[in-house]
């Protein structure tokens, strides 16, 4: 007789910022529940372990990117990737969840059985090729939203003839020597604006080549309020005060951008004109054709990008690529940018639920045919949450709300004798995209993502204060959620 697969109450996929946060919340808010974390790579940290390019840092302030239950005490508000990775590792040790991680386990499939009221999860060992099967009562997918093994990189005409090095930031070579080299960085997003000033310190010259500009805003690398309060208040009180201030300011900034985009454009332009040399063509290089927050704003700490451009160690070119040559990149304008190294900071490939396949009672789940419930669960899919953070604020803010909500839900189910919780779609249907951004990486992935509706609880609100009320104190048995006892079928309208 074959041995039964190992069973845990909760199986967490991913040991990054979201997954470690989920485990810590289970430890403190749903104690006694067994859990295991499966991580495809060989280390804690997720994004912050993967990316190793020069200058890699947070694109949100650490007082809101860090965990609410474990205050950030570092001096930098905009922290480097290594510091964030260390913070996640320390949190895992402090909350005794590090020993629950199984590395080299890539989850490839999960199938729900209503008869057994559990998921059967299949993982592949990335180090041995072995297949591992576990079962769980609840599946928490904290694998982020993009492919870890491959970034997005379009093919460029003539790139095979380029005699220099062609690099994607997601796979940065540890031994890359760019000192004294001419570097072209293709892109205008968060990675590009981070790389350019970092490379400019040692490179002969760095050119940021963009097809379309991005909105860029400078914030202090160290928070002035935090520096003022340190020594006067306890670390926890300082953290809470700065976190509250940043939450309010970021929310107001987003709301102002959406309601008065022209005024926001003028405000951003004013800051850029002040930070750049007289006569700099701000309107060509820093004026996107879309409104602020149609795509994410790019953050630069202490104006480092503007300082690099002002020093003439770096420049910015806006135009379209015609082809690569042996010695660089030729634009459609005819201009050629000489390069020893070309960095293709061209974005990510979205990969929802970690790339695994899902099935419910033998029927494959098509994510695009499902409706999001509170931005965290899927219609017709029982006992599974999918952690997807904010696009207009720190990822962890929404991730932590989801993780706490899952604990509330699990505790409620245990108290009431339910074995499953299954969201249902709204009766009027849903057609709005899950992520309301026009960024290329989002637009390329819409066919892989669920939909959202125009009202709660099927609306994905990009508003922490509203979500905190809905998810922290809102009803668990609202019109979008159904509960089942042992032996009961899933709702037909799911």
TrEMBL record:
A family per Pfam: NAD_binding_8
GO MF annotation terms: flavin adenine dinucleotide binding; N,N-dimethylaniline monooxygenase activity; NADP binding
Coiled coil, from the record: none
Cofactor: FAD
InterPro entries documented for this protein: FAD-binding_MO, FAD/NAD-bd_sf, Flavin_mOase-like
SUPFAM superfamilies (alphabetical): FAD/NAD(P)-binding domain
Keyword field: FAD, Flavoprotein, Monooxygenase, NADP, Oxidoreductase
Family designation: Belongs to the FAD-binding monooxygenase family.
Protein name (Swiss-Prot/TrEMBL): Cation diffusion facilitator CzcD-associated flavoprotein CzcO
Organism in which the protein naturally occurs: Petropleomorpha daqingensis
């Amino acid at each position: 007789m074959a041995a039964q697969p190992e069973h845990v109450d909760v199986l967490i996929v991913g040991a990054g910022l979201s997954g470690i946060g989920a485990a810590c919340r289970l430890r403190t808010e749903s104690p006694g529940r067994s859990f295991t974390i499966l991580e495809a790579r060989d280390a804690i940290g997720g994004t912050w372990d993967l990316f190793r390019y020069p200058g890699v840092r947070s694109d949100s302030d650490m007082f809101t990117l860090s965990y609410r239950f474990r205050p950030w005490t570092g001096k930098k508000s905009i922290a480097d990737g290594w510091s964030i990775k260390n913070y996640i590792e320390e949190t895992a040790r402090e909350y005794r969840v590090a020993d629950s991680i199984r590395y080299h386990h890539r989850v490839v499939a999960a199938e729900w059985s209503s008869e057994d009221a559990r998921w059967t999860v299949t993982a592949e060992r990335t180090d041995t090729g072995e297949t591992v099967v576990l079962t769980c009562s609840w599946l928490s997918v904290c694998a982020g939203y993009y492919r870890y093994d491959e970034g997005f990189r379009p093919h460029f005409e003539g790139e095979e003839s380029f005699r220099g090095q062609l690099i994607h930031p997601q796979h940065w070579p540890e031994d890359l020597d760019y000192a004294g080299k001419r570097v072209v960085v293709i892109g205008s997003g968060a990675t590009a604006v981070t790389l350019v000033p970092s490379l400019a310190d040692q490179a002969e010259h760095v050119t940021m080549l963009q097809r379309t500009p991005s909105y860029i805003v400078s914030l202090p690398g160290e928070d002035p309020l935090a520096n003022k309060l340190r020594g006067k208040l306890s670390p926890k009180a300082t953290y809470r005060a700065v976190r509250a201030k940043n939450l309010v300011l970021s929310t107001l900034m987003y709301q102002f951008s959406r309601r008065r985009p022209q005024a926001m454009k003028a405000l951003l332009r004013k800051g850029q004109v002040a930070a750049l040399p007289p006569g700099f063509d701000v309107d060509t290089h820093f004026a996107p054709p879309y409104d602020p927050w149609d795509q994410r704003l790019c953050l630069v700490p202490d104006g480092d990008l503007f300082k690099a451009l002002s020093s003439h160690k770096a420049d910015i070119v806006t135009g379209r690529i015609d082809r690569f040559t042996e010695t660089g990149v030729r634009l459609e304008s005819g201009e050629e940018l000489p390069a020893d190294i070309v960095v293709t900071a061209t974005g990510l490939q979205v990969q929802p639920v970690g790339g695994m396949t899902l099935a419910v009672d033998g029927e494959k789940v098509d994510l695009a045919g499902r409706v999001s419930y509170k931005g965290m669960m899927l219609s017709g899919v029982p006992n599974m949450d999918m952690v997807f953070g904010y696009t207009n604020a720190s990822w962890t803010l929404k991730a932590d709300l989801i993780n706490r909500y899952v604990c509330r839900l699990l505790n409620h189910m245990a108290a009431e004798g339910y074995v499953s919780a299954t969201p249902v779609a709204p009766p009027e249907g849903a057609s709005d995209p899950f992520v309301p951004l026009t960024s290329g990486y989002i637009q390329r992935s819409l066919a892989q993502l669920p939909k959202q509706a125009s009202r709660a609880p099927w609306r994905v609100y990009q508003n922490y204060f509203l979500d905190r009320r809905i998810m922290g104190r809102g009803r668990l048995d609202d019109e979008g959620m159904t509960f089942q006892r042992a032996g009961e079928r899933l709702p037909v309208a799911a």
